Amino acid sequence: MAKIAAIPMILTALCVFVGGTLWTVVYSFTSSRLLPKANWVGLDQYERLWNTNRWIVSIENLMIYGICSLIFSLVIGFVLAALLDQKIRFENTFRTIILYPFALSFIVTGLVWQWILNPDFGVQNIVRSLGWASFEFDPLYNQDIVIYGILIAGLWQGTGLIMVLMLAGLRGIDQEIWKAARVDGIPTWKTYIFIVIPMMRPVFVTTLVLIASGIVRVFDLVVAQTSGGPGIASEVPAKYVYDTMFLRQNLGQGFAASTMMLLAVAIVIIPWAYLEFGSRKRD
Amino acid sequence: MTEATAVFEGAHGPKPRRTFSRRNIFLYGTLIMVALYYMLPLYVMIVTSLKGMPEIRLGNIFAPPVEITFQPWVKAWAEACTGLNCDGLSRGFWNSVRITVPSVIVSIAIASVNGYALANWRFKGANVFFTILIFGAFIPYQVMLYPIVILLREIGLYGSLWGLVIVHSIFGMPILTLLFRNYFTSLPEELFKAARVDGAGFWGIYFQIMLPMSLPIFVVAMILQVTGIWNDFLFGVVYTKPDIYPMTVQLNNIVNSVQGVKEYNVNMAATILTGLVPLVIYFVSGRLFVRGIAAGAVKG
Known about the structure:
Oligomer: heterodimer
Helix content of chain A: over 70%
Low-confidence stretches of chain A: none
Shape of chain B: globular
Order of helices and strands of chain A: HHHHHHHHHHHHHH
Number of domains of chain B: 2
Number of domains of chain A: 1
CATH architecture of the largest domain in chain B: Orthogonal Bundle
CATH class of chain A: Mainly Alpha
Mean pLDDT of chain B: 86
Strand content of chain B: under 5%
Order of helices and strands of chain B: HHHHHHHHHHHHHHH
Structural class of chain B: mainly alpha
Largest sheet of chain A: none
Helix content of chain B: over 70%
Largest interface: A-B, 91 and 89 residues
Number of helices of chain B: 15
Number of strands of chain A: 0
Radius of gyration of chain A: 23 Å
Largest sheet of chain B: none
CATH architecture of chain A: Orthogonal Bundle
CATH superfamily of the largest domain in chain B: MetI-like
CATH superfamily of chain A: MetI-like
CATH class of the largest domain in chain B: Mainly Alpha
Shape of chain A: globular
Mean pLDDT of chain A: 89
Strand content of chain A: under 5%
Number of helices of chain A: 14
CATH topology of chain A: MetI-like fold
């Protein structure tokens, strides 16, 4: 009976997760356009992919966005958690305020920040009207910095979650350790860097994996905030896949691009899984 | 619990600190600045949605409205246009309701049974499927988008509401199954064994013993799913047709449409309307929401 009840799970695991992934990888070696067709072309799609400027821009954007959002999320998340961990009053209020953007969708996030960063009405306009007439801050209309405009919105939405996870990690640290550090006269910042952070390694690893797998999926935020523009300056891989598959009817190319995304995720996930299982065996 | 210990430790600590010590000013000052920064977008949204267009063109997006008007809200809800339809966001709202309700019910029903089967019955091969499921949570959605299009087309549900319900159930499964499995594993095993001895079967134990005991985890799962499905954009745009587009997709179409004059106040009213459901859930459920995302995140 248990097996019959678990049929939806077994079907999902085998048909969608394993089957679907294999199917996409296999058909990335075909020249499918409007419909999937099994005419093999070897690595042609990949060759074309890496010769497409739009894909290269997408990858560059993902790298910049990824590295920045990884560093800033971890640093901001940890600092905020450390501040909230000082036995302060109104901790719940602060936490509620910092976490609420996480409840909002990327579409909503993207549209709000599109409005705030609007050069004619938003931040740039305000600073100019205060008297600094040459002030320039229009990330969404400047090809060189547009990805940072998206980063601002992404960080606003996601840092709350990282903070909550870090806070849980900090609370898990034995109070005795703090006392011992104080008795030895170690300054607080040193205790954090040399004792507490190394002890929180598991929390850092999970948040890292979480942020990394979220970064690869960035799609709605870009669609809402810039639609990939100006020009193609803020394209990302997930959007490239969607556009080639569903708007340009170039399935093979979309499969190749999504297979590259899968590869990127595998590079992050496999070492992590290895570490997890490795440490579990030792326990 | 943490607050209780904090109070306790405070009573036993060294001499009380002055309220306005330099440390406190720095600490609370920083936190208040941060809180203001995080509140800013919500504030700007609300303020903009209550202004008339002439006021927006003249002024400052951070200034409170001089003349409050609810016209933008009415327009966003009932008159804003996407393509040829001019019946506002209300259409998207009801579509989202019609998508979210069955998706939440179906996905939670399936996942709770999965979790129960995994935790208590440990059938052969269970761990293999479970491991695949958990790894599946990390596969980029883009990889599986098209195979699912084919699957849905085969069973005749592509482009329909029920097709989308299936998609949400599939992609919600890894995290929900994990959530339920961990919860059911934490219940005392004697309960299950005693019921077995009394001759209760698979469904008997599930409905009469497990379900009544696991209300809290169902609430957590519901919060997780309602916000997740309400906020979804990708699946909505891929697997449905324009007349059943969920709210997020319709919102994006309204705000980012290239034709016509941009009405920023209407856009912001529409944006708040779309964010309202998850925000209300967040502020009402508080701690449970945090528990839900933490459970989903830490192990996910």
